[in-house]
Amino acid sequence: MTLSKDLILITMDNIAEEVRTLIYNHPFSVDEHVTYRVYADKHLDLGYIMDTEQKLLKGYSYKVKRERYLLETVNTNIDGPNWLKALEGLDLNPVKG
C-alpha cells in the first residue's frame, strides 16, 4: 500500500518482499554492502525485534550488516483521573503549516 511517493506502509507479512524489491531495483557497486538498521523501543520484546531482522534477511542476506538501536522512550499515562493534568505536563507545540 503506497501512502505517498516517498512513504510506503510495510506490514510484518510483506517485509521480505518489499526488501527484495528495494534492493534488486537499486544500482549497486561490486563491493557495496547492505546495512539493516532496526530502531525499536528498548521495552519492546527482543523476540519481536529478532523476528523483524529475520524477515529482513529473508528478503536479502548477501553481504549484510545488522544494527540495533534501542530507544529510550517515556511512558505517559493519560487514562487516569488526572489526564488533563498529564496533558498539561507534556511539551506540546503546535505545527505551523
In summary, what is this structure?
This protein is an alpha+beta fold and 97 residues long.
Describe, in plain words, how this protein is organized in 3D:
With 97 residues, this protein is of the alpha+beta class. The chain has a domain at 12-73. The chain has 3 helices and 2 strands. It has a two-stranded parallel ribbon. Helix 2 (46-59) links the parallel strand 1 and strand 2 (64-71). The longest helix has 14 residues, at 46-59. The chain is elongated, with a radius of gyration of 19 Å. The mean pLDDT is 78.
Which ranges are low-confidence, i.e. pLDDT below 50, for 5 or more consecutive residues? none
| Helix-strand pattern | HEHEH
Derived from helix and strand composition plus strand pairing, the structural class reads alpha+beta
Count of discrete alpha- or pi-helical segments spanning 4 or more residues? 3
* Beta strand count: 2
Most strands sheet: 2 strands, parallel
Q: How would you sum up the global shape?
A: elongated
- Which percent range describes the beta-strand content? 15-25%
The end-to-end span amounts to 26 Å
The largest beta-sheet arranges its strands as 1-2
Annotation keywords:
97 residues, alpha+beta, two-stranded parallel sheet, 2 strands, 16% strand, elongated
Topology:
Blueprint: H1 15-24, E1 34-41, H2 46-59, E2 64-71, H3 83-88
Parallel strand pairs: 1-2
Helix pairs in contact: 1-2
